[in-house]
Amino acid sequence: MTAKTKLPQTGGCCCSALRYALSAPPVMIYNCHCTNCQKITGSAFTTAAAVPESGFAFTKGAPKRVEWRADSGALRYGLFCGECGGRIVNGAVPSSGMLSLRAGTLDDTSWVEPVGDIWTKSAQTWVRFGALTSEGQPKDYAPFAAAYRAQGRF
Ligand SMILES: [Zn+2]
Ligand SMILES: [Zn+2]
C-alpha cells in the first residue's frame, strides 16, 4: 500500500518571496500540454494538481495576478511571484471553486504522479502519454479523478 501523504503540504516560488500551504488533497493530477502551459513554463507541459480553492492559501508574500484567454476559450487567471516570476496557481474567471496548482512548486514532489495528459493535440511529438488522454479540454474529468483516487495517496 502507498504511504499516505500528510497535509498540509507546503511550497513556494524559487526565490521564496511567496510561500503557500495546501491543506486539502488534490482531486486529480495530470499533465497539460496546452500552448499557454508551454509558454509559461518554457517547456513541454505543466504538471497540474487540481485542488479546492478552500484548501489553498498563501502563507508568505502577496502574489501578482495576470488574466488571459485559454486555448479552451475560457477566461483564466494566474498568480505568480513579482520578484522571480514563478507561477504558483491558475484559476477560472469566474471562480470554479478549483485551482490548478503547478505541482513543481511543492517542496515535496515525491507523491506527485500524473494520471494522464490533456491538450495532447498541442503536445510535443516526443512526449509519451499516461493512461488517460484528452485531445483538448476534457469534457468529463471523472475518469481522471477516479484514477487519481485509485493511487490511494491520501
Ligand atoms: Zn519568487
Ligand atoms: Zn495548460
Strand order of the largest sheet: 6-7-8-9-4-3-10-11
| Count of folded domains | 1
**What is the number of beta strands?**
11
Poorly predicted parts: none
Q: How is the CATH topology named?
A: Metal Binding Protein, Guanine Nucleotide Exchange Factor, Chain A
> Helix-strand pattern, N to C?
EEEHEEEEEEEEH
Report the end-to-end length measured between terminal Cα atoms: 11 Å
Strand content: 35-45%
Measured as a percent range, the helix fraction is: 10-25%
For the report, how would you describe the main beta sheet?
A: 8 strands, mixed
Supply the CATH architecture.
Answer: Beta Complex
CA-based shape: globular
Ligand inventory:
zinc ion
Count of DSSP-assigned helices: 2
Structural class comes to: mainly beta
| The CATH class | Mainly Beta
What's the Cα radius of gyration?
A: 15 Å
Secondary structure layout:
Elements: E1 9-12, E2 19-22, E3 28-32, H1 35-41, E4 46-52, E5 56-60, E6 64-69, E7 75-80, E8 87-92, E9 98-102, E10 116-118, E11 132-134, H2 142-150
This protein binds zinc ion (2 copies).
Description:
With about 150 residues, the chain is mainly beta. The protein is built from two helices and eleven strands; from the N terminus they run E-E-E-H-E-E-E-E-E-E-E-E-H. It has an eight-stranded mixed β-sheet. The chain has a three-stranded antiparallel β-sheet with strand order 1-2-5, with no helix packed on it. The structure holds zinc ion (2 copies). One zinc ion binds near residues 13, 17, 83, 84 and 86.
